[in-house]
Amino acid sequence: MLAALEFFVHHYVMRGRGKTRLSLAAPGGKDKGDVTHLLILRFQQMLSDGLLSPGSKLPSERELAQHFGVARSSLRQALKVLEIMGVIQQKVGDGSYLNPDASSVLAVPMEFLFLLDDISWQELMEMRLIMEPALAARAAEHANSADIALLKQSLDDFENSKGDHFQMVASDLLFHRAIFIASGNRLSERLFHLIHRAMLNVMLVTSQLVELEHTLAFHKPIFNAIKQRDAELARKLMTDHLNDANDLLLRGRQRESERVLQEHLRTKRSAEKPAKTAAARRLKAST
Predict the structure, then answer these.
(1) Which of 32, 131, 207, 252 has the most beta carbons within 10 angstroms of its beta carbon?
(2) Rounded distance between C-alpha atoms, residue 179 and residue 227, angstroms
C-alpha cells in the first residue's frame, strides 16, 4: 500500500512537471476546514486514478500525513468526515478501509438533503412515477437469471411475512431494489434505494392500510412481465402500482388528519368541562 501511495505522490509531481511536491499544507494560514476539503479532494483523485480501490486498506495515519504534508490532526478530521459519508470504514486496531459497497456512501448526504430541503412525500412519489416505470421496462429488457431469482425471493418473503409489517416493508423494498438492479443502471439503484429509505415511515403506514394480498396483486404481474421480457407491460403495471400507492398515502394522510382533529376536540372538551363546572359553582354560591 505504501508503494502505491508513493507512486501516487510521484505521479502528481510528474504531472505537475516537477514544479511542486504534493502537499496539502494550508497555504496562507488556511483553517482546518480548508485542509479537510483539500484532503477529501485528494482521496477522490486517488479513487479516480485507480490508486485506491473499493475494499482496499489505506496506509497508516503517519504515512498519509507525511506524504500529504499535513498534521495528523488535520488528517484525522478528514478521515472522520469520510467515515461519516460512508466512504471509509475504520476498524479498531486494524486501520482504515475504503468501503467495498457504495450503497451507503450517498446515504447520509442524501438523507440530509431530504431533511434540509423539507422534501415532501408527494415530491418523492412524483419522482418515483417519473423514473420507476422506465426502470421496470429496462429490467424486462436486461434482467438475468440472478435478477429474476432475487425478484422471486422478494415475493416469497412478502408472502411469508404473515402480518409482520416490518417484514412486509423490507420485502417491498427488496422487490423494488431488485428491479433497479435488473435495470442495469447502477446509479439508479443507488439513488432510488435512498429514496425508498426516505419513505420508510410512510411505507410502514400504508402497509397497515391494506391486506398483504393487495400489494401482491401488483407485484406478481410486474414480476411476470419482467420475467416474460414484456417491457411495455412492466412499465404500465409499475405505473398502476405507484398510482395505487399514492392513493393509499393520501388516504393514510387523511385518516391521520381526522385522528388528530378528533384528539384535539376531545382534549378541548375535557378542558372545558371543569371550567364550566367551576363557573356553575361560583354562580350558585353567589346566589
Answers:
(1) 207
(2) 11
Asked whether the beta carbons of 98 and 52 are under 8 A apart, the reply is yes
C-alpha 50 chain-centroid distance? 26
The candidate with the shortest Cα–Cα distance to 236, out of 116, 140, 92, 106, is: 140
How far apart CA 198 and CA 205 sit, in angstroms, is 13
**Cα gap 250→252, rounded to integer Å:** 5
Report the C-alpha gap between 144 and 142 in whole angstroms. 6
Give the side-chain half-sphere CA count within 13 A for 258: 6
On whether the CB atoms of residues 62 and 72 are closer than 8 A, the answer is yes
pTM of the shown model: 0.60
Binning pLDDT at 50, 70 and 90, where does residue 208 land? confident
d(CA 178, CA 168): 15
pLDDT in tens, 31-41: 555 778 888 88
